[in-house]
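Observation: inputs received (chain + 6-diazenyl-5-OXO-L-norleucine).
Thought: call the complex predictor directly.
Action: predict_structure
Action Input:
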Amino acid sequence: MTINRILRAGLLAGSAMTALAMAAPTYAQMDLQPEGATGTAPARASVVAQDFMVAAANPVAVQAGYDVLAAGGTAVDAMVAVQMMLNLVEPQSSGIGGGAFLVYYDAAADALLTLDGRETAPLAAGGDLFLDEDGARLGFWDAVVGGRSVGTPGTLALMAQAHERYGTLDWADLLQPTIDLAERGFTVSPRLAGMLTGSRAERLRTYQPARDYFFPGGEPLAVGDVRTNQPFARTLRLIAEQGPAVFYDGPVADAIVATVQGAQGNPGLLSREDLAAYRVIERAPVCAAYRGYDVCGMGPPSSGALTVGQMLGILGHFDLPSMGPDSVDSWHLIAEAAKLAFADRGLYMADSDFVRMPAGLLDPAYLTVRAQHVSLDAALETPVAPGNPPWDEAALWSTHEGLELPGTSHVSIIDGDGNAVSLTTTIESGFGSNLMVGGFLLNNELTDFSFAAERDGRPVANRVEAGKRPRSSMAPTIVLDEEGAVALVIGSPGGSRIIPYVARSIVAILDWEMDVQAALDLPHIVNRNGGTDVEAGTSAEAFAAALEARGHSVNLRDLTSGLHAIRVTADGLIGGADPRREGIALGR
Ligand code: DON
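Observation:
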């Protein structure tokens, strides 16, 4: 039995596992799934614990969070430690060069809030950011690689603000394990090594710091290599000693701006003023009622909670609990609800500080009307048209269907006092803009904006505007039960597929009463108002013919979610990690 399985199985025994759980596993000891190897994952048990739990995308990062919780830190303290460690060991997905959304349950105040640490467009940017001299849209990767796509990073500001409000341990101590490991060297994981091949690797060789870091001596890092990151250790040491000001208004800011503006062939507009002006925004959570629960998450600039909420609001009109996961009816309905929700997302959703959005996107009467479009017998033709949700002041927008690609991570944490963290954190594509400075990668989040500012003579709601935050699909979620207590913490990476990944996992856990790990393992069938994607190589393929017969246009493909979830039950905390990535859940 590998350490990986020992940890999972052993933690079922609860606190008796603490000693073993304290020993951080190494990759050499674990049988991790290579990318895309879905459907063949060994069956794994949920992790059960009584006091606290952390679930995230990398065992070393999870261990860092566990250690903080075991030392009496809060969920937010643990979040800081996990995020810093993820930046080191899963650099392709998230870090201080990117942005994040936090949904937080403050147990003492019995309050739920969200912090928006999304990147902003530079103040010098406008609707032509992704157009060439002739006014034609740039190719996606031409826009991504280099400085043009880099938005003002928000993750560090979010960490600092959350820590100031909800942390109890010393800020510098939370960064120290990552500083130490960056100096000593971490073990390269299968997923990181696997991403250093093919076309992605070619792009990553464009600029020198990333080329030298990921391809030392010209060869890609391999599984099991030990990689130091001295520049990152130095950056974190500065941030530990002097706080986030060194990043937003000090030497790190200088280095970021020089890197972005000096990116040969594709310089960007990010300036010292953008960094100095960056602010985390506290926003009210967006909650949708679902079968007695409140499903709460991140509102605009994320489309996550609204679109998950619309899907569930439509699905609430159907008896999914009695249909269960083995009925094609369930998957047909989930796909149909997604089509309708994605239609509204494309037209209406963007940064609401810049565009007027309908207030009634989650209005139960409106979703009842939308649900009436759904038939059990025949699939809606796509693209489904957006609806007419109630709103005070109408604005005519045009649609935007964005391309969103790997490079995101989800962290779920519950501490001993019942505080809960649901954090989805991103640098957008795998390796972000491919620009590296101070040992970390800079995001390409601005390509989440529509490249075209208008369509058919109407402005696109998600067009680039100075200081605006690009629309996101990230859906960090906390589900509250009828008493208002935390019932589930969940989220995933996966671009716009995050939305159906999260919605169907909520259905599996709440409606089908599935064990948390089993719910995350469940094969995916997703629709984003187009074809119906069925996870290749899994038992879901058995539904393909029946879905086709109802009119779905089925595509078999890899669907690499990265769901991390913790459920609160009378028997304790029950956690799971997506078998499609490298994460684990760990608790005591
Ligand atoms: O904010 C968003 O919606 C995207 N930038 C997230 C990208 C993503 O999830 C890639 N995942 N693997």
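Thought: report the result.
Final Answer: The two ends are 21 Å apart (CA to CA). The CA atoms of residues 321 and 511 lie 5 Å apart.
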